[in-house]
Amino acid sequence: MVAPKAKTLRDRTNEYRSLATALRKRQLNPPPLPESNNSKATATAANSEFSRHASSIGKDIQDTTLLLEQLATLARRKTMFDDRSGEINALTNQVKQRIAGLNGKILSLQALQRKQSGKDAATGGKQAIEHHSNIVMSLQSRLASTSTVFKD
Length: 152
Description:
This protein is mainly alpha-helical. It contains four helices and no strands.
């Protein structure tokens, strides 16, 4: 049989205190941030503006789709004795206005994309240009499919 080794204890209190002191100093005096390029900050702000607009349009398309589902439900439940033509007409007009508004928003998003494309092309941001173009096309196709459902 092998005899168990005796464990020796080591006092590491001083190491702990020095580590805690170093961390405290680091928290009080954070390292300086590297200077950012002003053009990068502007590009980031422009990209976030584009993203906010695109997100808003996407949410509006989803809301319009929900209105269309509500309109379809009302149209299916229509019976001879339960005339909801006023409610159906109101929803129809609301959907038409939303679709027209969304078309305008997508056009303004395209204008913003074109404006940013000129800046991105100068800085070599071909991927950003393609990404923004893909987002605009995706929003247009979602709106087109929503409009097609509305016409049916």
